Amino acid sequence: MKVDGSCHCGKIRFEADVDLAAVTICHCTDCQQLTGTAFRVSVPAAASTLRFVGGTPKTYVKTADSGRQRIQGFCADCGTPLYSTGIDAHPAHYMLRTGCMTQRDSLVPREELWRRSALPWLPNLHCDRSLDQEDD
Q: How are strands ordered across the β-sheet holding 13-17?
């Protein structure tokens, strides 16, 4: 599916192709802190399909407790999280944040990751699968 989106202030705009069957919710504590809420919803896009049509994201490298490093891309002006990716020179894919996409209502999560870190007041989200392994 072709998607487009932007940060909250509109300075960064992008387009990409995503797989509707690959939308995930991550409950890990890093995702909770990085979003400022209970979880993060993401969908992968092949690097070859991601195109920034306005602005350039600012990035930094987040090191998880496991030692795994991920680049986090966001708008330097409004702070909107846009993606994460590996630290490779040429990553194969980007995990795009669904909240900044125009088509977010069509991006239904199919899988939950790190469910054991889910906040206890969350209802069951009824995803197809629930895993306790790191994806992002």
A: 2-6, 13-17, 51-54
